[in-house]
Amino acid sequence: MFHRRQSYNDAVSLAIYFRPFIQIQKRNLVNVKFKWVKDTLLDSVVSSSVHLKATCTLVSLIGSNPESALPVYYLTRYRGQLGLPPDLKVSTFVRRYPNIFREFYRPDSSGTPVPWYKLTPEVLEVYHQEMRCVYDDCNVDILNRLQKLLMLTKERLLPLHTIDQLRWDLGLPYGYENELVTKHPGLFSFTKLPDDRVGLKLLVWDDCLAVSHLESKKSNLAETNHGELAFPIGFTRGFGLKRKCMEWLNEWQKLAYTSPYVDTSHLDPRTDVSEKRIVGVFHELLHLTILRKVERKNVSNLRGPLAMPQKFTKVFERHPGIFYISKRGGTQTIVLREAYDRGNLNEKHPLADIRGKYVGMMKKGLLDRSRGLYKKESKGSEELRRWQQRRAEFNYYGVKQGWMDLT
Questions:
Q1: Which residues, other chains included, contact 127 with Cβ-Cβ below 8 Å and sequence gap of 6+?
Q2: Which of 101, 60, 65, 64 is nearest to 82 (CA)?
Q3: What is the pLDDT of residue 173?
Q4: pLDDT at 370 over 70
Q5: 151 pLDDT higher than 60
């Protein structure tokens, strides 16, 4: 009996020696729960940019128009991309920032005055800085971000609708399909999907890009005795980790790190190793964003393309030391903890600085508006009154008297 058991143990030891992955795969998913603890600094990061996406999108829409002006009904068509509350009208939002958007009126086909909006000279200058950054200074970097996003998927393919949801986070310009993708026919192609939607497919795999941020920074990270990569961890003050949770987390960090750019069909989704791979994918995805944060709803439909198991977004709750879930702005925003130090980005992309200028202008516009600074300067209501008066004269005399374009 002793010799038989010894032989069995030797066989198992040899199997583990030559295929250590077998041993790792046997680690079942541990049911560990962490409480959510408020982080005021990261909440302030999210709060400061609650309406930033809407402002930047509207500025891009108006700035990219040949006339640099658009009517309100045209802007309303893009409401879904703005992320505004359902009860907030686009026109109401735009009028909050008279130092960014200037309102004037033009008649429609029936002669009814319709509100139009153009950019103020100050914001137009910032918009031109943004375009120079996107198409000149950081063009290669932004193109690489789109490539890496597609490389994360199992088929190197994503619906345009899904990319649109992440467009602003990745720093892609408005109209990237025509302005960016079509200029690189050797890299991308548009594909018709089975559900008749249009998808974007990456044609060329780049091994130089298939390196995660964690792997590229591994020399600066804590490593286990066996060389497995560990994620940077940080908790909100007063988090109070239980001993059981701490022990599990330490063991989990020692598990093998799976690059988000390799095939993982061999992984059992019910193991901690698979969970570490999921965390690695979103760790990389957040590093592809400009501000290292993304709305949870914008990644919830990536389960199929990223080959994720059911309820994959639960990793955000299970790893509060890596991800912080902010509930500001009526939605859930996932923030990468390691990217911020006391509310400030550790590594700032040039686009982040430009967006900071938009934030400053938005704050100034709201403050000056509350002080009544724009009441005397605002021409919107006066122009509308003049339009109504002229239209009344037109109806009374039956003669068109000097219809003008008030800009």
A1: 59, 60, 63, 119
A2: 60
A3: 92
A4: yes
A5: yes
Token pair for 189 = 């192609």
Phi, psi of 347 (to 5 degrees): -120, 110
Q: Is the dihedral of CA 316, 317, 320, 324 positive or negative?
A: positive
Give CA–CA dist 289/229, Å, rounded: 22
Structure tokens at 132: 């120079």
Backbone angles phi, psi at 295, to 5 degrees: -70, 135
Query: What's the pLDDT at 221?
Result: 46
Quick: pLDDT tens for 74-106. Answer: 999 999 888 888 889 999 999 999 999 999 999
Per DSSP bridges, beta strands 188-192 and 198-202 are antiparallel
Give the integer Cα–Cα distance in Å for 256 and 20.
Answer: 10
Rounded-to-integer distance, Cα 386 and Cα 107, Å:
12
Point out which residues pair with 190 in neighbouring strands: 200
Residue-level pLDDT at 385: 58
Question: 314 pLDDT exceeds 60?
Answer: yes
Q: Is the pLDDT of residue 20 over 80?
A: no
Alpha-carbon gap, residue 280 to 257, rounded angstroms: 8
Average pLDDT over residues 13-39: 57
Domains of the chain in sequence order = 49-114+358-402 (no CATH), 120-208 (3.30.420), 212-338 (no CATH)
| Radius of gyration in angstroms for the set of CA atoms belonging to the chain, rounded to a whole number | 27
Cross-strand bridge partners of residue 118: 69, 102
**The model's pTM:** 0.83
3-state secondary structure the chain: CHHHHHHHHHHHHHHHHHCHHHHHHCCECCCCCCCCCCCHHHHHHHHCCCCHHHHHHHHHHHHHCCCCEEEHHHHHCCHHHCCCCCCCCHHHHHHCCCCCEEEEEEECCCCCEEEEEEECHHHHHHHHHHHHHHHHHCHHHHHHHHHHHHHHCCCCEEEHHHHHHHHHHHCCCCCHHHHHHCCCCCCEEEEECCCCCEEEEECCCCCCCCCCHHHHCHHHCCECCCCCECCCCCCCCCCCCCHHHHHHHHHHHCCCCCCCCCCCCCCCCCEHHHHHHHHHHHHHHHHHCCCCEEEHHHCHHHCCCCCCCCCHHHHHHHCCCCEEEECHHHCCEEEEHHHEECCEECCCCHHHHHHHHHHHHHHHHHHHHHCCCCCCCCCHHHHHHHHHHHHHHHHHHCCCCCCCCEC
Q: Go through 52-76 and write b for each residue having 16 or more CB atoms within 10 A of its CB, e for each that does not.
A: bbbbbbbbbbbbeeeeebbeeeebe
